[in-house]
Fold this protein.
Amino acid sequence: MKLLCFALPILPSLKQGVFPDGKVLRDFSGLRNLAWPRADQWVVGTLQEGAEQLAETIGQPVTVAPELCSRHYGAWSGRPLKTISAEDLEKWLHDPKFVPPAGESRSMVYHRVVQWLRKIQTKDETVAVMADADIVRLLILACLGLDVTWENLLDVAPTSWNILSYRTHWRLQTLSLPPEKSGFEITCGSKNDH
């Protein structure tokens, strides 16, 4: 099995220091000119509207996997980070079990990512995943047998490819490869292969 994980562009609210609220859609138009690899299945971790836009952008049908959607911030959704107490921000950054009011902890998100991975791990195919960088990071940790406490030691760049393969165990083949780099075509195939 091969797992091709594309980290989606960062949400505009995060650039502004605001917790995502799930209402603002990203602009995926910058992805139109990228080379997209062959895959037996395309899976997205986004809302249905975003999935439709991604399917149109890449020219492939996609399946929404709710397990791969971004973390739910609950009462913090739509709020600027500066409105959260320093104590709560410290917990949010360093305690994987900390849950924002009516939201999800990093451990909860990791658990649902692991559940999705267990469902697909037995397939002998290439699966392309398009999800937020934090979800891709959790997928990599889960594949490597590392728990969520390792999350802050791994960077996954937005709009990058992260490639894992599985035979008898998972292997990380590529981390944060920009899609326009020549190594991408060697690893994933070129437009001519389509």
User: Anything to note?
Assistant: Confidence is low (pLDDT under 50) at residues 190-194. Strands lie at 2-7, 41-44, 63-64, 126-131, 161-166, 170-177. The first strand starts at residue 2 and ends at 7.
